[in-house]
């Protein structure tokens, strides 16, 4: 039985010039787990909204084509009616939590059905158990939960309704690795227990390969590739053109000119002296002058949480350093201390050789630029031009020089054509680039960027890291907080690993990732490439 | 076949959630403003009531939702930390409802489609302080005349006359500059809305706190100082802060479809 | 379950019998007490209400340090009220102290501005101060003993639609969102070079406009995301959600407390009418 039938779906949001969906055809059979992937802006979330009836019933725009879900036409059957049989889990765990406790959150959708008290309680406990959360979570409030826990509650709230169709819209995008792992286990458990058809929008190829029966690639509003995941990924170059990156072992195998075998086979090949030239070339910059240094820095938050414990490091010109570690390890705290946004309880921070306390806020922000994880927090103006000009105007830059510096920054970040656009209407990626451009325009010596690739597709991540690499190569110092080990390995000169408020490793990414103890302690996921290259390195060293 | 999906004009979650979140922001700003910039010992009354910069523009963008946001945030402010009773707070809070209603009504009654785009940036920066200052001087002159000039004559009458001339002159210059900022109708409606909102809400607010309110929480003698502080503060906040927000965010509300032409949807 | 006081100020109450009462009781008692304030027309009655509300506050287990925080507020209010009576009017009574501040020979008479302290003005100041103090105690009793969950479940039991009940929940979530967003936005402005401490008041005021822009942008983004999430859960603004999940009957203690406070209210009403 067909659960989803989409024919020639086109959609244009009101006020938008272009269609987001340009003729999508899609069918999903009962019991199938379909993965949908594609670059950011391809129309994946729009497709999800169309499958729930929110488009076109609640959002103004122009629709063509037909969407039938479980036999119901989304043009005729009300959203509320469709929602009785279809459940959705969105990307951002924060906005899905509308009530004040986990229990109330789970009960909310069930109460709308007028179920008796005992049945509601039963379903709540069952759903919680399914996602790996215990009864003790019932009284917890949103601020007491981690990202992974919040997302699991959202999944539990969805499955408690026992939907016939479950849609997961990038459920792990906004999470740290631990959170991702928790949610993946929850999805596994749900998949095994729930008799439902599942559509999962996802970027992570490993997850797609693990779960999906079939993969659909959406790009620029149309389906461009379709088939079993292995089949789609084996067409590596074509997939990459649509910003779809295959799982790592596929990529590595193709790079080595091999037929895509499994991870274990690749490792065996590495041990058996198969040449890995071309695979193991990584940036290695020794870095120049010290821009910012920290010595024996401690920081404790007002509640008593010791976030930094005796941290010492130096950041140099020409270096791109990746700062990694599990949530709560102190990465953001360290970054803010280095930027002068937090004052350490003990220890010393120096910028260009001078104690940080000697600088005024204006001087310091001209030397150390900080870009936040959510770019919306730092877009203060009503046009792209004004946004980049904001910091410069604070410094008294006016007239021709203002125009020149703003244009230079816009050009560098490919935002020139959007100079008059309101920042609110930029895409996520454009907003990130704008936030970077606004800070870049101040010409800081050190640029600190907090998780710039979270929630973005791999292609955007690569493009952004290339820009940061270029900045480092031009003599700047760049510190990136990231969870992406692949990108750190590919672009960074240094990997600083943290855990429990301490720096536990600070060396070349390959050297750090070769140490299983560090990898375990910092909760890093060691990429296959790193394993292979570490083996090759050991081999080289062992040779006389 | 292309279907122009124009959802029926009805109240949706988008309206409700925007209103609720705006009310939450207004409440927090109300508490902070009344703590940092209090007025003459009247709890909850602030010399610079920043919360108005949220719900007054929201009234222009979303009609009644803005008025309700003003009302509810003030109601809760009255309860805590100002410590008024539920009934006193129920009556008092209409001041903020009126404050958002006045500009919202002007735009809707005269069917003005708000276009806050700025063609002359220098005029946009200059007119708010001129209107605020001119209005405040005018108001002070009127208060002097009402309290003392009418019964005692000179020199209070002279103070009143000069205040009126100076205040009106400054305000008129401000108005002329304001009209030259961009779309004339929009800016004219906005200026009228700012002045009307401040005065009407001041009358209700100060009146219910001091003159009438089952009973009023504060002594009647405080009416004029509270009224003057209220109106002056509102003029400054609305002419400076809410103007900036209207310029920056009207396109956001319009293009996202949150803008409400009517009163509710 | 945390109360509003714990959520706003992080102040946690110790256990007390009052907190074990039904939420309906804990909401109704402050409401009835606040009615009593309306009936207090003289010093003895307002003093009685002040004493009663303070006693209930102590019984509820609310830490006195919260009340201490209000002392500064009460002191300033009292001073200003006193000044209002002394500066702006002359309350008839025995003049205890007088000081002429300004004297203007006007066209039609003399205008004098004096500080006049009479016994009646002092008593009136005391009356207003006690009244405000009572209202503050009652408001504190409310927020110290009622949580947002109590209010939400109360609204549910009234049969109000989801637009109101879920909306009320979102109000409290919204406060949390705003406070954390504001902290980040302020910090982000500092990271761009804004120094709030060393900026003039006028410029700082203008900078707050810049801070409000991202906050309201985030509001719009969040509201769309939250609305979409609610729609896809099958909850529309008009949906009626049953309040049966968290319903529990009133206990004997609830009836006793409600009865007692009800009688007190009637007594004050009688005092107001007949006294």
UniProtKB/TrEMBL annotation, chain B:
Keywords carried by this UniProt record: Membrane, Transmembrane, Transmembrane helix
Residue stretches spanning the membrane: 12-30, 36-56, 63-80, 86-110, 130-148, 160-180, 187-207, 227-249
Keyword Transmembrane helix carried by entry: yes
Protein name: Uncharacterized protein
Organism per entry: Thermofilum pendens
């Amino acid at each position: 039985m067909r659960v989803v039938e989409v024919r020639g779906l086109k959609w244009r949001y009101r006020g938008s010039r272009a269609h987001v969906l340009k003729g999508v055809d899609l069918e999903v059979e009962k019991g199938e787990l379909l993965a949908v992937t594609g670059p950011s802006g391809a129309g994946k979330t729009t497709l999800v909204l169309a499958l729930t009836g929110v488009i076109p019933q609640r959002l103004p725009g122009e629709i063509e084509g037909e969407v039938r879900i479980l036999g119901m036409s989304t043009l005729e059957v009300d959203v509320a009616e469709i929602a009785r049989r279809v459940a959705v889990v969105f990307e951002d765990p924060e906005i899905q939590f509308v009530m004040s406790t986990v229990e109330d959150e789970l009960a909310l959708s069930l109460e709308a059905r007028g179920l008796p008290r005992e049945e509601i309680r039963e379903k709540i406990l069952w759903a919680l158990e399914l996602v790996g959360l215990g009864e003790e979570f019932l009284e917890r409030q949103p601020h007491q939960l981690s990202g992974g826990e919040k997302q699991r509650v959202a999944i539990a709230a969805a499955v408690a309704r026992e939907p016939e169709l479950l849609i997961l819209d990038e459920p792990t995008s906004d999470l740290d690795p631990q959170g991702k792992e928790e949610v993946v286990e929850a999805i596994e458990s749900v998949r095994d227990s729930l008799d439902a058809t599942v559509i999962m929008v996802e970027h992570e190829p490993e997850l797609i390969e693990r779960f999906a029966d079939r993969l659909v690639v959406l790009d620029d509003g149309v389906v461009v590739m379709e088939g079993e995941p292995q089949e789609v990924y084996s067409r590596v170059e074509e997939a990459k053109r649509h910003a779809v990156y295959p799982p790592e072992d596929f990529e590595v195998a193709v790079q080595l000119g091999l037929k895509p075998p499994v991870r274990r086979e690749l490792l065996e090949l590495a041990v058996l002296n198969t040449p890995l030239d071309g695979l193991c070339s990584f940036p290695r910059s020794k870095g120049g002058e010290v821009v910012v240094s920290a010595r024996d820095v401690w920081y404790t938050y007002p509640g008593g949480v010791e976030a930094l414990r005796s941290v010492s490091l130096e950041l140099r010109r020409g270096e791109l350093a990746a700062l990694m570690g599990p949530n709560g390890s102190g990465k953001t705290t360290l970054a803010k201390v280095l930027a002068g946004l937090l004052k350490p309880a003990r220890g010393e921070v120096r910028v260009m050789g001078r104690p940080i306390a000697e600088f005024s806020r204006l001087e310091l922000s001209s030397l150390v630029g900080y870009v936040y994880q959510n770019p919306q927090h730092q877009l203060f103006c009503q046009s792209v031009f004004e946004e980049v000009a904001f910091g410069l105007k604070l410094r008294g830059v006016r007239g021709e020089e203002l125009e020149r510096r703003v244009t230079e920054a816009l050009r560098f970040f490919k935002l020139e054509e959007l100079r008059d656009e309101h920042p609110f209407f930029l895409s996520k990626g454009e907003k990130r680039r704008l936030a970077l451009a606004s800070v870049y325009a101040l010409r800081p010596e050190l640029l600190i960027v907090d998780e710039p690739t979270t929630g973005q597709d791999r292609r955007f991540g690569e493009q952004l890291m290339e820009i940061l690499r270029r900045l480092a190569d031009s003599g700047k110092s760049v510190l990136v907080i990231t969870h992406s080990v692949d990108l750190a390995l590919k672009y960074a000169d240094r990997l600083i690993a943290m855990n429990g408020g301490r720096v536990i490793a600070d060396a070349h990414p390959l050297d750090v990732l070769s140490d299983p103890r560090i990898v375990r302690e910092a909760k890093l996921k060691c990429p296959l490439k790193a394993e292979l290259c570490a083996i090759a390195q050991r081999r080289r060293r062992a040779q006389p | 076949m292309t279907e122009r999906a124009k959802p029926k004009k009805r109240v949706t979650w988008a309206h409700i959630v925007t209103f609720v979140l705006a009310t939450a922001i207004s409440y927090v700003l109300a508490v902070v403003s009344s703590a940092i910039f209090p007025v003459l010992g009247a709890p909850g009354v602030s010399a610079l009531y920043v919360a108005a910069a949220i719900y007054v523009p929201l009234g222009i963008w979303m009609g009644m939702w803005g008025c309700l946001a003003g009302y509810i945030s003030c109601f809760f402010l009255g309860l805590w930390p100002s410590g008024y009773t539920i009934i006193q707070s129920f009556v008092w809070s209409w001041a903020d409802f009126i404050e958002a209603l006045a500009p919202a009504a002007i735009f809707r009654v005269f069917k003005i489609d708000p276009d806050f785009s700025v063609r002359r940036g220098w005029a946009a920066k200059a007119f708010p302080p001129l209107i605020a200052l001119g209005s405040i001087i005018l108001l002070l002159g009127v208060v002097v005349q009402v309290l003392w000039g009418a019964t005692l004559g000179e020199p209070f009458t002279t103070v009143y006359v000069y205040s009126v001339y100076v205040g009106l002159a400054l305000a008129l210059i401000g108005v002329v500059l304001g009209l030259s900022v961009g779309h004339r109708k929009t800016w004219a409606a906005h200026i009228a809305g700012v002045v009307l909102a401040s005065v009407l809400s001041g009358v209700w607010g100060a009146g219910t706190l001091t003159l009438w309110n089952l009973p009023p929480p504060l002594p009647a003698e405080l009416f004029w100082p509270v009224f003057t502080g209220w109106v002056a503060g509102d003029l400054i906040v609305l002419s400076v802060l809410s103007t900036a927000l209207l310029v920056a965010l009207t396109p956001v509300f319009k293009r996202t479809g949150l803008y409400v032409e009517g009163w509710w949807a | 379950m945390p109360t509003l006081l714990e959520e706003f100020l992080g102040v946690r109450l110790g256990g007390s019998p009052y907190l074990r009462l039904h939420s309906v009781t804990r909401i109704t008692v402050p409401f009835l007490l606040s009615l009593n304030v309306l009936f207090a027309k003289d010093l003895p009655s307002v003093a009685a209400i002040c004493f009663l509300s303070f006693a209930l506050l102590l019984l509820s287990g609310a830490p006195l340090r919260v009340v201490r925080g209000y002392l500064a507020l009460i002191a300033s209010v009292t001073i200003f009220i006193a000044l209002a009576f002394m500066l702006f009017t002359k309350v008839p009574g025995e003049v205890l102290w007088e000081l002429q501040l300004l004297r203007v020979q006007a066209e039609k008479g003399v205008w004098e501005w004096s500080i006049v302290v009479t016994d009646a003005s002092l008593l009136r100041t005391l009356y207003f101060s006690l009244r405000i103090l009572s209202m503050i105690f009652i408001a504190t009793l409310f927020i110290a003993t009622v949580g947002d969950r109590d209010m939400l479940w109360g609204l549910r039991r009234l049969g109000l639609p989801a637009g109101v009940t879920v909306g009320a929940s979102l109000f409290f979530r919204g406060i949390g969102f705003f406070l954390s967003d504001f902290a980040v936005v302020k910090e982000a402005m500092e990271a761009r070079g804004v120094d709030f401490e060393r900026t003039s008041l006028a410029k700082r005021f203008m900078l707050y406009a810049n801070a409000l822009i991202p906050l309201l942008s985030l509001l719009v983004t969040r509201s769309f995301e939250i609305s979409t999430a609610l729609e896809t859960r099958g909850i529309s603004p008009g949906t009626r959600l049953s309040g049966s999940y968290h319903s529990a009957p009133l206990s004997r203690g609830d009836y006793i407390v409600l009865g007692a406070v009800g009688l007190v209210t009637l007594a004050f009403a009688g005092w107001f009418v007949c006294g």
